[in-house]
Here is the input.
Amino acid sequence: MKVGFLSPRGTFTEQATRILADGNELIPYQNFLEELKAIEKGEIDEAVVPIENSIEGVVNATVDSLAFDVDLYIQELLIMPIEQCLIAKKGTEIKDIKKVLSHPHAIPQCKNFLNQNLPNVELETTPSTAGAIKMVSESELKIAGIGAKCAASLYGLEVLCENIQDTNNNFTEFVRISKNKNQTFDNGNIITICFSTLDEPGALLKLLDIFSIYDINMSKIFSRPMRNKPLEYIFFIDLEVKNNKEDILQAIKLLERKTAFCKNLGCYPILDKRLKK
Amino acid sequence: MKVGFLSPRGTFTEQATRILADGNELIPYQNFLEELKAIEKGEIDEAVVPIENSIEGVVNATVDSLAFDVDLYIQELLIMPIEQCLIAKKGTEIKDIKKVLSHPHAIPQCKNFLNQNLPNVELETTPSTAGAIKMVSESELKIAGIGAKCAASLYGLEVLCENIQDTNNNFTEFVRISKNKNQTFDNGNIITICFSTLDEPGALLKLLDIFSIYDINMSKIFSRPMRNKPLEYIFFIDLEVKNNKEDILQAIKLLERKTAFCKNLGCYPILDKRLKK
Here is the structure.
């Protein structure tokens, strides 16, 4: 199978793709929509894209495209902790490091580690963590970068320390998507649905009541602007699938009846890599 | 009065600030949180910040800061259409223009105008519309920029054509904020409240029912990650204020009783500049 992911290489997105599509051929894409359209064209079988980060929130480009641009479905969701690594050329020792490079978000995430182990080094920001590690590989100086583990192997460098981030609150959810509709709800724990509401008082509440009546738990809800309709919104909800397939089918039928736009984005299992820590 | 806004100058944010704080002294800030903190410190009286765009959605930095970083309140909301202008040095004629500069989002917004009036010009992207107009002012060549009207006067340039965007679907909501709590609900059409929910089935629905019971219309709802609490969310809702002040007060009291975190971000009027078009 061929699985797409967003370049550059050596990022947490590549790391997630290696977890979700282990053993498959990975194809990098420069552009996010091009990557998704490649599935529709049959160039690739699946793609892995980020959908939410625990600090930054929902990845708008992903959810908007799944709602409006493509007919693709979520097959699996990975919750991946953002584990930062200190990476340098082979043989480098921590005491020799004079400068540390990384993305402006990654450096403050590792403040405690840097204060304790590299209190006097120069800190320099780069446009991406992968870019930082690439610069380390090209430099003649005693410098290190902070980034994803997979960037070290990509550039033939060494991981000096793993998990150097201050807290474990930072993780990203990635989804593996394909053309497969999987409407039998057999393999999943979660269903994601997006829908529009009528512009009238209590419209959203009436729709959410459907799930309440069927005792279906909604584990997430968020809104995004309706494309080309200013001040109108669509809602994305995640429903928990337990021994309630028949109820969920009925509830979705009711939802479809009461909405102008309603799209089932798939029923899928969750792979939670936080549990292993 | 002193009113803060986010630099650089010559952007749609400056234009919005000139509408919302006409006649006051405008103070540019490089950093968004610094701007808000300046109100708390008393350096400025008010600040204007973008809170939502009709295409891009909610401005996360703004809503997160209002929820978690500062004790400031919304005084007024401006809905401002993003009206792109073709700007060049005085005396330039459209037929002489060889190149057009602008932000990567602004150029496709004006595709029809460019195809009809400047079919063969070179198009070049810049990091911001204000940056494009600045480059036009510094260039010796026959070039034009696409950007906000206020950028033309800032750099002593001429607006060759106004409202050159293809559709009027693109507008941004800006809020004027200050320390003033305004809890009497006298001047407002809208109240914005943010709150957390308990992590149990139907928790959100139970809270929204409060407003339904009091016949209070909710015109907007969106969620953001709770800071430092992975996979927990806070919700922001907008409530319509009509002749129902007492009901709203009672509903908010009930909401506060049933939530661990609940913050009233202000009751404020809406200035809708789209109506004038």
Q: What stands out?
A: Chain A has three domains: 1-80+172-180, 85-161, 187-271.
